[in-house]
Specification:
The chain is α/β, with parallel strands linked by helices. It contains 11 helices and 12 strands. InterPro entries: Glyco_trans_2-like, Nucleotide-diphossugar_trans.
Length: 341
């Protein structure tokens, strides 16, 4: 039987954690799904764990990707998926028992279903559930809304850039594969941060309605070896390769800005967030030993774009950063702030 939902799980160096997520999915009351675990060939431990899990249920498939990175894994999963809908949980997180069913109910078309007499259910193209963030078994952040909300794409796109509830996380959402296939949507394999937000932005431009269910169905687990944790300087020095990966966050912002050029309100919210994160990255450039590398870096083009955006600094630090970034855009030089010696 063809599955209704394809659950695509990228897996790399998580041999001990992957069984938790897979068994959470297998324990869902909603049963009409397949699980696609996407592996790298240089990770035999996770591959062995995935093979053992595949023995538990014939709905589990294990495939290998050709390129590195989570985007390549998700793209391979999209190519292999047979379901009408796609879900993208991370293999080292956990989900509630109703995760799949709640997502499906938020997006599934039903011409017969009515909320009240003579009021038909609104068909949507993107479904979202609430989530929380867990650090050492403690919830440190969570979505705050308490009601079901149906939005048009303009409303959602604004919220995508200014409300935590609709951040560009991929794992608390469900997508229609027909839209992904029709417009050949894929994750950008050259973007390592906000690649999921960029994908969502591209997808939503082809949606008429989006439904959010506040039920906390997804638990994002923070780990000391996560991509975010690796961004911290070690002994006051930041690895250039790490920073260059983070810089792709601005590449994602730049691409989303072009996508939203005809959507005035979402574009304004995006630009404010774009400038804020670009300033953070620009400040971190001072922790790299050889700053001469940045003279001809593509981030210099980003700096020129960012400093042309209308933005009101919230404090003296941001004002100084903007002035320094403007000088960098013109000269290619990264100088110390006055208060940093």
């Amino acid at each position: 039987m063809k599955p209704t939902i394809s659950v695509i799980i990228p897996a790399y160096n998580i041999a001990g954690l992957l069984p938790g997520m897979v068994k959470d999915i297998l324990g869902q009351p909603f049963k009409y799904f397949e699980i696609i675990i996407v592996l790298r060939k240089d990770d035999p431990d996770t591959a062995a764990a995935a093979d053992e899990l595949a023995k538990l249920d014939d709905r589990i498939r294990v495939i290998y990707r050709q390129s590195p990175g989570v985007s390549a894994a998700r793209n391979a999963g999209i190519e292999a998926a047979r379901g009408e809908y796609l879900v993208f949980p991370d293999g080292d997180d956990r989900v509630e028992r109703g995760y799949i069913g709640t997502l499906f109910a938020s997006i599934a078309d039903s011409k017969k279903q009515k909320l009240v007499k003579d009021f038909k259910r609104i068909p949507v193209q993107l479904g979202i559930v609430g989530y929380d963030i867990v650090d050492q078994d403690q919830v440190v952040d969570e979505t705050q809304e308490a009601v079901v909300r149906v939005m048009n794409k303009e409303d959602f796109l604004c919220r995508l850039f200014f409300q935590e509830n609709y951040q560009g996380y991929i794992w608390n959402k469900i997508f229609k594969k027909s839209i992904i296939d029709k417009f050949n949507l894929r994750f950008d394999e050259k973007v390592y941060y906000r690649e999921d937000q960029l994908f969502i932005c591209r997808y939503v431009l082809h949606c008429k309605a989006i439904r959010y269910n506040p039920a906390h169905m997804y638990h994002y687990v923070q780990r000391p070896d996560s991509a975010t944790a690796l961004l911290e300087p070690e002994n006051g020095v930041l690895d250039l390769r790490v920073l260059e990966r983070q810089m792709t966050e601005c590449r994602a912002f730049s691409k989303m800005r072009k996508l939203l050029k005809r959507h005035e309100d979402p574009k304004w919210y995006l630009e404010q967030e774009y400038v804020f994160y670009a300033l953070e990255i620009f400040y971190r450039m001072r922790f790299v030993k050889d700053r001469s590398h940045f003279k001809n870096s593509y981030f210099r083009k980003i700096a020129k774009e960012v400093t042309d955006i209308e933005y009101c600094p919230v404090d003296d630090w941001e004002k100084e950063q903007l002035d320094s970034m403007r000088e960098y855009a013109n000269t290619g030089l990264v100088k110390e702030n006055r208060n940093e010696g």
